[in-house]
Write a structure and sequence with these properties.
Elements (H helix, E strand, L loop, with lengths): L1 H19 L5 E3 L3 E4 L5 E4 L4 E8 L2 E11 L2 E3 L7 E5 L6 E2 L4 E9 L3 E2 L2 H16 L13 H14 L4 H13 L11
Antiparallel strand pairs: 1-4, 1-10, 2-3, 3-7, 4-5, 5-6, 5-9, 6-7, 8-9
Helix pairs in contact: 3-4
Bound molecules: heme C.
């Protein structure tokens, strides 16, 4: 069922793109592997914004931006949201200081231009876990730092284990007021 919905969304997105010419923002659909020009790879994590540079049949060449610390790339200097983890030898384009651009290819179906599509399962889990005592707070009404603080208490209230907690915290941060998904609010 999910596949059918997803395919329909992709089809609608394609039709949309056809009439729109200018591509909008795309996101990584699930944790994926990006292949660099020299064959080295980088792990790219769910929700990361990508710019599609080139369509190559079933694959796309994408550009991803972030701030590099060792082999890890974050969305900002404050290291709040992990973007990528690069294999030794993966070549990044240095921009300004430790701001970098990662360029590589991956399957086109691992990208989506619909944040709802990307975060659907996380969102279900969020509503399941976080609406037992109060209504689900609007995720984009808080910043990443605020979520980090609030979540410290709430993960205990919701009795989440480590894995569930990091799964949910990534969703909250990525969709926060200063996260990956830019929405009006
Ligand atoms: C067992 C009940 C319970 C569960 C489950 C629960 N909360 Fe809460 N939540 C509360 C209570 C009580 C408050 C108000 C008191 C407080 O701020 O500590 C609150 C307050 C909040 C606030 C407002 C805090 C502020 O400072 O503005 C947010 C946001 C929030 N919860 C998010 C969540 C999230 C996200 C989850 C799921 C991980 C969650 N809650 C699960 C009981 C719960």
């Amino acid at each position: 069922m999910k596949t059918i919905i997803r395919n329909t969304i992709v089809l609608l997105a394609l039709l949309g793109a056809f009439f729109q010419v200018n591509a909008e923002q795309n996101f990584i659909y699930q944790d994926s592997v990006l292949k660099g020009d020299n064959g080295k790879t980088a792990k790219i994590f769910v929700g990361v914004p990508v710019t599609i540079k080139e369509e190559m049949g079933k694959n796309v060449k994408v550009s991803i931006k972030g701030v590099m610390f060792g082999d890890e790339v974050y969305s900002s200097k404050t290291k709040e949201l992990l973007v990528a983890k690069v294999e030794k030898g993966f070549e990044v384009n240095q921009r300004d200081g430790n701001e970098v651009e990662l360029v590589g290819t991956l399957a086109k179906e691992l990208t989506s231009n619909d944040p709802l599509d990307v975060w659907g399962e996380h969102e279900e889990f969020y509503f399941e876990m976080c609406t037992q005592c109060h209504a689900g707070p609007e995720v984009n009404h808080h910043s990443m730092m605020e979520w980090e603080a609030i979540f410290g208490t709430m993960k205990g209230f919701a009795k989440l284990d480590e894995e569930e907690a990091s799964y949910l915290l990534r969703y909250l941060k990525a969709n926060s007021s200063d996260g990956f998904v830019k929405t009006e609010h």
